[in-house]
């Protein structure tokens, strides 16, 4: 667990060394690759073959959906550099990785990953590559792909019948 947090903190600090538009753009590009790789690396650290498969499936589904939407919608970028703004691919892949880490390994992994995904999304706004709608759509698409294709580490099932109310809680060990 400490390994992934250390890796994420190192990646964020290396990418966040400057905040002008060019450096923000470059650090966002780095995090777009680094965060999904960190998520995949976490499955290796935990010897979690099922998690690696689930991450891969949700990542591929997310990328396919993101690029299908980009080709269908053809929304202009704020900086007028192209017509593939919607949804943000950077937000999409980083929020997919963060949601996977949160669901599969818990808050200790999820919180730093969500911070990194939020930072990556901010870089896209700072670089004038996307607007808030592009970012929100990418984040929701990425989170949804991980949510629907990842088995969570905790499952709570309510139980209600005529004589009792309760819940069962199942914890998955990585």
Give an account of the 3D structure.
Strands 1-2 form a two-stranded antiparallel sheet. The protein has helices at 2-15, 21-45, 49-73, 89-105, 107-126, 132-149, and strands spanning 154-160, 165-171. The protein contains 6 helices and 2 strands. Strand 1 (154-160) and strand 2 (165-171) form a beta hairpin. It is mainly α and 174 residues long. Helices cover 68% and strands 8% of the residues. The relative contact order is 0.17.
Give the key terms:
single chain, 174 residues, mainly alpha, two-stranded antiparallel ribbon, 6 helices, elongated
List the topology elements:
Layout: H1 2-15, H2 21-45, H3 49-73, H4 89-105, H5 107-126, H6 132-149, E1 154-160, E2 165-171
Antiparallel strand pairs: 1-2
Structure summarized in a few sentences:
The protein has helices at 2-15, 21-45, 49-73, 89-105, 107-126, 132-149, and strands at residues 154-160, 165-171.
Shape: elongated
Strand order of the largest sheet: 1-2
Distance between the termini: 11 Å
Q: Could you tell me the radius of gyration in angstroms?
A: 18 Å
The structure class reads: mainly alpha
What is the number of beta strands?
A: 2
| Main sheet properties | 2 strands, antiparallel
Strand content: 5-15%
How many separate domains?
Answer: 1
Low-confidence stretches: none
- Per DSSP, the total helix count is 6
Could you estimate the helical fraction of the residues in percent?
A: 55-70%
Rounded mean pLDDT score: 86
Order of helices and strands: HHHHHHEE
């Amino acid at each position: 667990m400490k390994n992934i947090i250390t890796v994420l903190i190192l990646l964020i600090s290396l990418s966040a060394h400057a905040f002008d538009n060019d450096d923000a753009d470059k650090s966002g590009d780095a995090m777009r690759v680094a965060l999904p790789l960190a998520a995949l690396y976490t499955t290796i650290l935990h010897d979690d073959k099922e998690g690696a498969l689930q991450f891969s499936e949700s990542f591929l589904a997310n990328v396919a959906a993101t690029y299908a939407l980009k080709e269908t919608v053809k929304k202009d970028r704020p900086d007028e550099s192209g017509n593939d703004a919607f949804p943000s691919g950077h937000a999409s892949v980083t929020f997919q990785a963060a949601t996977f880490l949160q669901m599969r390994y818990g808050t200790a992994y999820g919180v730093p990953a969500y911070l990194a995904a939020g930072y990556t999304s901010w870089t896209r706004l700072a670089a004038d590559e996307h607007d808030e709608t592009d970012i929100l759509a990418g984040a929701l698409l990425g989170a949804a792909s991980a949510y629907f294709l990842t088995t969570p580490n905790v499952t709570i099932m309510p139980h209600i019948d005529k004589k009792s109310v309760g819940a069962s809680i199942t914890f998955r060990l990585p």
